[in-house]
Amino acid sequence: MLDRIRVDYSMTAPFLDDRDWAGAQAGAVRALATLEDGRGPGAAYLGWLRYPETVAGAELEGIEQIAREVREEAEALVVVGIGGSYLGARAVIECFGHAFSHLQAQEGRRRPQVVFAGQNLSSSYLEGLLEALERKSFYVNVISKSGTTTEPGLAFRLLRRILLDRYGREGAARRILSTTDGRKGALRALSEREGYRTFVIPDDIGGRYSVLTPVGLLPMAVAGVPPEEVLAGARSMIAPCAVKELLQNPAALYAAGRDLLWRKGYHTEILVAYDPRLQSFAEWWKQLFGESEGKEGKGIFPASAVFTTDLHSLGQWIQEGPRTIFETLLHVEDEAGSLRVPEDPDARDELEYLAGRAWTDIQQQAAAGTRLAHHQGGVPVFSLEVPRLSPYHLGQLIYFFEKACGISGTLLGVNPFDQPGVEAYKQNVFALLGKPGTEQAAAQLAALMRAVPKGKVV
Ligand code: PA5
What we know:
Blueprint: E1 6-8, H1 18-36, H2 51-54, H3 57-73, E2 76-80, H4 87-96, E3 113-117, H5 123-133, E4 138-144, H6 150-175, E5 176-181, H7 186-194, E6 197-201, H8 214-223, H9 227-238, H10 250-263, E7 268-273, H11 279-293, E8 301-306, H12 315-320, E9 325-332, H13 359-376, E10 381-386, H14 391-412, H15 422-433, H16 439-451
Parallel strand pairs: 2-3, 2-4, 4-5, 5-6, 7-8, 7-9, 9-10
Antiparallel strand pairs: 1-10
Helix pairs in contact: 1-10, 1-14, 3-8, 4-8, 4-11, 9-14, 10-14, 11-14, 15-16
The structure holds 5-phosphoarabinonic acid.
């Protein structure tokens, strides 16, 4: 049997019909070729296409070796990064972590725990983290391609200071691992000056396509998720996602389907998972598609939901709200878990008919029933059939989505590898904080603020 993820597009009909798919073939194959041949916009950032095959063995050994050291010596690894420099690692680690590790006895825990910082500017978040780290031995993996991003830069300052105070310069340097550009940037310069052990983010791989580089692989390895298995999964998708036939290439098919739906007015996509451990995976996916496609007034809005939880909050809207949404369901075929419903005739809760049934079976039926209901209610549904939630299959999913995103952005006519819109907020924040050189922008902002009508507060 085929041990790879597959795209079931049967429930995109009748919203998409055979004529739509036939009409999409030529454009999708052209977009695929444009992307692969590096003829599209952002062609300098295609390193991720082949990285799972080309990554050097020595690089992987280096990652494993340091991960072993961190596992032996530390109780926590603080991963400092934002956007593409943290979402991928978090997505993978949370898929295989224990949802209740904070309740487990200390001795039952897998050491060390991987925690995250630098992905927000919240003082209370960082204070909580510092409190938790007070009597813990920890390492820091600071990740920033540019080396100049404010949020991780500030968090790293704080953590570096603590390590310097605790262990001195040499001891701190041993506990700081940096993942950054190979040649330039403030973090590269600091790492070289201080002698931090450093991993390189390849020049030709942008942040949100970097989870399968040291950006994601080192934190994964520390958390006990084998990088080689994740990469093997990714590698196994390279050939299927390169086939020049729309209906035989899962990434091209999904990309073309999204494009068709977008053109028919379906402007929001909801990535649905039934396993709550996939919640962070959805966050990674949202960034991948949101930052790659949302530009020039175009792009599907990427949303996510965890069912059945969100069926009791968003379910009503999905079933009967404006018909501008479609769903992409992550359907794990062989779900983990062996729980069965206990017998309890005294409960009189009208659930006795389920006694003895496996929880996984109940969930599968819930997923089937929900998919049908939403489809009947006017929601096109893609179903991604994932054989198992394993590191190998997660690697497949990551590569599949990255490839689909590249094709989809090319079909949309945007550059899927830049993010010019992210600059607007940054420039305003710099000006408001008084960064040297932003005086003119600060004056313009002050004028804009003065022009905002006052007193409209209730
Ligand atoms: O996808 C991207 O390029 C961004 O999300 C970046 O990863 C994010 O802005 C962090 O940038 P950096 O790694 O330079 O700190």
